[in-house]
Amino acid sequence: MDYKDYKLLKIKIDQFVAFVTIDNPPMNLLNFELFGELYKFLTDAESDEDIKVIVFDSADPDFFISHFDVSHIIDSSFFPEKMPPRPTEPSFFKSLMMRYRSFPKVTIVKIEGIVGGGGSEIILGFDMRFGSKEKAYFYQPEGIFGIIPGGGGTQYLTRLMGRARALETILGCKRFNADLAEQYGWINRAIPQAEITGFVNDLANRIALIPSKNIGFLKQAVVAAEDLSISEGLIEEDHLFNRSIRLPESRRIMKEYINKGCQTREVEIDSKKQIEKLMKIIKNIH
Amino acid sequence: MDYKDYKLLKIKIDQFVAFVTIDNPPMNLLNFELFGELYKFLTDAESDEDIKVIVFDSADPDFFISHFDVSHIIDSSFFPEKMPPRPTEPSFFKSLMMRYRSFPKVTIVKIEGIVGGGGSEIILGFDMRFGSKEKAYFYQPEGIFGIIPGGGGTQYLTRLMGRARALETILGCKRFNADLAEQYGWINRAIPQAEITGFVNDLANRIALIPSKNIGFLKQAVVAAEDLSISEGLIEEDHLFNRSIRLPESRRIMKEYINKGCQTREVEIDSKKQIEKLMKIIKNIH
Amino acid sequence: MDYKDYKLLKIKIDQFVAFVTIDNPPMNLLNFELFGELYKFLTDAESDEDIKVIVFDSADPDFFISHFDVSHIIDSSFFPEKMPPRPTEPSFFKSLMMRYRSFPKVTIVKIEGIVGGGGSEIILGFDMRFGSKEKAYFYQPEGIFGIIPGGGGTQYLTRLMGRARALETILGCKRFNADLAEQYGWINRAIPQAEITGFVNDLANRIALIPSKNIGFLKQAVVAAEDLSISEGLIEEDHLFNRSIRLPESRRIMKEYINKGCQTREVEIDSKKQIEKLMKIIKNIH
After folding, report:
1. How large is the C-alpha radius of gyration of chain A?
2. How far is A143 from chain C (nearest CA, A)?
3. Is residue A283 less than 8 Å (CB to CB) from chain C?
4. Less Cβ around it within 10 Å: N or C end of chain A?
5. Tens digit of pLDDT for each residue in C6-22?
């Protein structure tokens, strides 16, 4: 797949990692066109065996995704004035992010600018978020506009930071810098701007060493932990574990690890040595 | 409403914010009288359109609320010696705090002293908690008295900090300063004593800009996130979003924002400029 | 009970605290023998009235528990090649940790070395975890071996740190030092190596002051918070509270506290004074 027929996403694939740059001038607003490309990319990537990990960033030096276009919300051709009945399934927007949550590829977001409203809800739907200490800012301004976040923000934030901090975030409508976003759990970590690209690329490359099927199992197990009770989740994990240890590729990795004498004090005391041995084993198997 | 018929709460309303000072000498013990006033205030405030946000603090320089009066627990006129049957609904205490959790006003607690036991459970039932770095201390001493927290502490703390830290808190019975309480999620944030009043008042005033009905929607969405599965919660959020975007006041704010040219790179890159524009729009509408 | 018939666990009891040192050379691998002793100890300790709190540490200066023996996973006498049907209850490993979670004794882990894979899942099943700032390292390497954590790791970590950080942990497979493990909630706290033994022993001794039955009630309440909805959990807490305040020993502690004039501003303003008074009351009662 060459990913040439995208207008707002620049896509490049290198060693099982897709680098996707969002470029929707003048301010990376989230509109239906950008949304459509995120949908199309999900479908394309799903069946692309050359992709294990996806790294999203922005072409705009100041905005990651500014927010959902406010003019759409007051446009009755998109949102008719008549109140619709209570929905029976999540909206198109949310369903897309729920599919990104469970599809068997890993999504990582590198945030080096302002991300607000529906843009924040996009990144909350992805798997991991890293923000530049100097340049990233996060806010959910919907409250002060008289509306509520409609792309999952209230649900994702409450799960990440608890009720009190989620209420502070969506009622206070203030911008959080990356350090505060890290403290509250909005992002995985705040990383100095000079290091963030190296950090994210290293993480992506490392994850790309994992056998494809096992990436799917790992994601399924974490989704189960969010969706099920502890006892049901433990059973689901058992079942996925049973499947993973019977993958031929996994068995070969484990056998080589034992045969090469890696399960020893000397190798395992040193994390660098251990990972080098593992990388060599994996590369020989492929 | 003039709120003159309260003995233990001093209540003052200013621009949609109610300032409530707890004053129950000699040490702000939580007794049935104080509890009765917190119940009465919930009912009064619920129907008072002049209140959007409530800020609680204490008249005692050393204690926020010391704890529930131990002499009540061993008084058989309050707690008969005979073990009651398993309850089928939460106690009066907990039901009150659950009503504060879901009623359509925002509660913020400013803690500048010791808060323990049932007092801690009161603040855990409110929406947000900010503690003075120098003066606030938090503890659940019930364990060492041979009893368990009975006002929701075990449930709220486990949700906020996870099983391991909740167990450390309620089994260790130690006092946490504000920094540790922040780290464990007991409070939103630890704020230097010199700044805490300004911080809390600023947050309260900012939230008071939000249309009343929308405050209710935002709180409902977060309560849904605590009570429902992810997929059910996302649907509830959709429904509340659909209602919020059809509020006449919200539509006017959004239209003005677009018409005044605020959805631009120049305005939104600067958080101060953006909030000033929004405040002007909101004040013109009222 | 003298606990002499253990090979891999060194067990010593002092004032209601059991100190259990794991000693399985050459690198504290988690194998079936060690697992068997952890099972046997659960059963022995359960009925031992001399134990209220259990502190686990390691005899190995570099490893707490290295991980589950990889050679077992590829051994078809342990894990047959044929894929088993979907399980209907958690595996033996997980059931053991779930019993440690709910049994009426408190488990505390002091980690002063590397802990990985199944070893990490053992500590995640215990009640509290403290790690040495200088010496503790944590990792879940399963992903890179082509398998998933099978001892509850995906479920426990997601509950402790949320989806995004759990995914980073189990997909990135990197070693976390104690500071990062603390930040992500993997452990309760990172403690300087020079202080960790004092800290853990002090906490254990303090918890050992709590009446045995009440330790059980406190743990049950927190387990309820993990397993039930908020409203069901609050009712369970009510029921346990009602039981706890009717324990004869608890009533005596509370009566003495009131009779000795401890519920006063002067005593309670000073946490040291308050705990000394309580300790004296408790020791007189026994």
Report:
1. 21
2. 25
3. no
4. C
5. 999 999 999 999 999 99
